[in-house]
Write a structure and sequence with these properties.
Blueprint lengths: L12 H11 L4 H8 L3 H8 L7 H11 L26 E4 L2 E5 L9 E8 L15 E8 L1 E6 L2 E6 L3 E5 L4 E4 L6 E8 L22
Antiparallel strand pairs: 1-2, 2-3, 3-9, 4-7, 4-9, 5-6, 5-8
Helix pairs in contact: 2-3
Length: about 210
């Protein structure tokens, strides 16, 4: 199954793009010059007549000098019980992968579960990340390599890893097949959203 065959992304890209562009007082033509995209293509996206590819989103994000996650950020109501049907998951495209929220963005407690789907060679970026809390990783399929400080841990299907997220860490799919992993971050500082660190950053090569 293609990792991009599920299209449930719980935001309106066209509205977000228009709002972000207008916040920066940019015309569509101005954004086109900065992004290398045609004004017509941007206009079609803003009117909701076309869905942008991941590559296009990265180009627009770089032109606006924002992380690509800004297109998907929202502040849903939080509660002490969260039930999400599979089609309702918040899904964010990564560079050659997919991030899927599992309710942490709607839960009032300090826990964020999410899943990542990674094509071969996909990584979290060139740099290590650190954040508060504790991180639990369970490899569902394929292989996942975590580097924590100077130690490398290679997970295969069924393997688990637990560590203090204040330690420098990064991950990648070192295998030749698609990887799926469940990640749970808990006990982080109030106001922090550590799962955002695991969404591909602008430092990652822009997909073509």
């Amino acid at each position: 199954m293609d990792i991009y065959d599920q299209e449930a992304i719980s935001v309106n890209i066209s509205e977000r793009l228009k709002a972000l562009r207008e916040e920066r007082e940019l015309s569509i033509r101005g954004l086109g010059r900065l992004s290398g995209l045609s004004a017509n293509a941007l206009s079609v996206i803003e009117r909701g007549l076309s869905s942008p590819s991941v590559s296009t989103l990265y180009k627009i994000a770089n032109a606006l000098e924002i992380p690509v996650t800004a297109f998907f950020e929202e502040t849903p109501p939080k509660g002490d019980v969260v039930f999400i049907k599979s089609p309702e998951r918040n899904r964010i495209p990564l560079h050659r992968g997919l991030w899927e929220g599992l309710g942490g963005e709607r839960y009032e407690g300090l826990i964020e579960p999410f899943m990542i789907t990674l094509e071969a060679g996909t990584s979290s970026g060139r740099f290590h990340m650190t954040h508060s809390g504790h991180e639990f990783v369970f490899c569902l399929r394929g292989e996942l390599e975590y580097v924590i400080k100077d130690q490398t841990y290679r997970l295969e299907s069924g393997d688990a890893l637990l560590f203090s997220a204040s330690l420098e860490h990064k991950w990648r799919n070192p295998g030749q097949t698609v990887t799926n992993a469940l990640i749970l971050i808990a006990g982080f500082l109030p106001g922090e959203s550590p799962s955002q660190y695991h969404i591909a950053s602008r430092d990652t090569e822009i997909p073509e």
